[in-house]
Design a protein that fits this description.
By secondary structure, the protein is an alpha/beta fold. Strands 3-4-2-5-1-6-7-8 form an 8-stranded mixed beta sheet, sandwiched between helices. Helix 15 links the parallel strand 6 and strand 7. Helix 8 crosses helix 14, helix 10 packs across helix 13 and helix 15 packs parallel to helix 17.
């Protein structure tokens, strides 16, 4: 394909710095399937935003806690903590030439006139967030009863969808505080990226659904009449539930439901409010993926879902993209050269060694035996050929990977040509410090993979 033809197929480039600099952008949601680099992307965006003058907070739900290590924080919890060495706290900001003039942390503006930013980071504590909801929306006595209830403890610790719902709750809390002008959310490492949007509705439907209302009926009737209603009108169902759940668990559920009665509507209301917040113009979704078929298939599904929900999509971040500074040498030519070296080298080496062993290489004038030196030279040449052939094969494999990734990306682009893309080059190792996050931020801003 000609260069002109390739240019026509290229997607629009995602301009990350423009997104971060836009003060109208208040929330960035990094979403995607598990294992594609959402946490690293969210952290790198937070660092770059702070160093471009934003007061940012990163909310992560990553159980591996890599974010804390990368940001030099001993531990993250449910309270935002300031990250030292970023933005106005001595970090390097946009316009800093590396000599410290642009980032002296003295509270003034940097070299291009931006005020110094700040970065805070936190990790969602799912149970603690649920506890805060209970404590904030009921009286102390009822809150203590709810928190001590065994069914509540199980629900708050691991009910399907609770993590995603609490992530939405925490996002709503952070936005309501208005302490930051940019909130960056690293969505939960769910099986499906869509769980972040679906789970709050599922949990809300569960908490105010028919099953809960049936269990709540005796408490609403009250006293002996309630027990009579339960025993007579619902004996068959509760008998079945007792067998399935156990009498003790059923009692815990009923006690929990009775205590939570006044709160059920609030769960759905807050979920709906946060959902509307995600649809607002100040929110931007970044779909994060790797150049692999499964990850980009999930990304395409998410792009379609965001469009259906009328949620603002900023673009696609394609992580771990391979590149080469020697891409003018194709895989086919590299393999052919490797084969020529290996086949030719073996033939020449064997015949040369045989000739040297059979021939008398001593000179009559000096009596010096030069056969050993010639053997050494031949062996050295063979070693060089072998190493060169190996490098050529490695290059061929890399070019095949690059071509496979390009085909995968092209399939996504053909389906969604309107989606802007930023490609981030694959790194030789994991990111564990601020310098690494800055490097990722620079690659995100560049939007194209560097040759490696």
């Amino acid at each position: 394909m000609s260069e002109a033809g390739m240019a026509m197929d290229e997607p629009a480039r995602l301009e990350v710095d423009r997104l971060l600099d836009d003060r109208g952008t208040r929330i960035i949601v990094c979403c995607g399937s598990g294992g594609v680099g959402k946490t690293t992307t969210a952290a790198a965006l937070g660092v770059r935003a702070a160093e471009r003058g934003r007061k940012a907070v990163v909310l992560t739900i990553d159980p591996a806690r890599r974010l804390a290590q990368s940001m030099g924080i001993d531990s993250l919890d449910n309270t935002p903590r300031k990250v030292a060495g970023v933005g106005g706290d001595g970090g390097r900001r946009a316009g800093d030439d590396g000599n410290g003039d642009g980032g002296n942390g003295d509270g003034g503006s940097d070299g291009d006139g931006r005020a110094p930013g700040e970065l805070h980071a936190m990790m969602l504590d799912m149970k603690r967030t649920f506890d805060e909801i209970v404590e904030g929306h009921t009286d102390r006595e009822r809150a203590e009863a709810i928190l001590a209830n065994p069914f509540y403890q199980s629900l708050s610790a691991g009910f399907a969808g609770t993590q995603e719902y609490m992530a939405m709750e925490k996002l709503g809390q952070l936005r309501a505080r208005d302490d930051w002008d940019l909130i960056i959310v690293d969505t939960p490492p769910s099986r499906s990226a869509l769980d972040f949007l679906d789970a709050p509705k599922r949990l809300g439907s569960f908490l105010d659904g028919k099953f809960i209302r049936v269990l709540m009926a005796p408490a609403k009737v009250g006293g002996r009449a309630g027990m009579k209603f339960l025993n007579v009108g619902m004996s068959l169902m509760t008998g079945t539930l007792s067998k399935l759940m156990g009498a003790s668990l059923l009692k815990d559920v009923q006690t929990f439901v009775a205590a939570m009665d006044t709160m059920f509507g609030g769960f759905r209301t807050r979920a709906d409010a946060t959902f509307r917040l995600l649809q607002a113009p100040g929110t931007a979704f970044l779909v994060v993926a790797a150049p692999e078929p499964d990850a980009l298939r999930e990304a395409a599904y998410f792009v379609e879902r965001l469009a259906a929900e009328r949620m603002p999509l900023a673009g696609l971040v394609l992580n771990r993209v391979h590149g080469s500074d020697a891409d003018q040498l194709s895989a086919e030519r590299a393999l052919a050269a490797a084969e020529n070296l290996e086949e030719g080298g073996i033939v020449d080496q064997e015949s040369g060694k045989a000739g040297l062993r059979d021939d008398d290489r001593s000179t009559p004038d000096t009596g010096l035996d030069v056969g050993a030196d010639t053997d050494a030279d031949t062996d050295a040449d063979a070693d060089v050929d072998e190493i060169t052939a190996g490098l050529l094969r490695l290059h061929a494999e890399r070019m095949q990977v690059i071509a496979r990734e390009q085909r995968t990306r092209d399939r996504f682009t053909s389906l969604h040509p309107e989606v802007a893309v930023a490609e981030v080059a694959a790194l030789p190792g994991d990111v564990h410090d601020l310098a690494g996050l800055r490097a990722i931020g620079e690659r995100l801003a560049a939007g194209v993979p560097a040759g490696a």
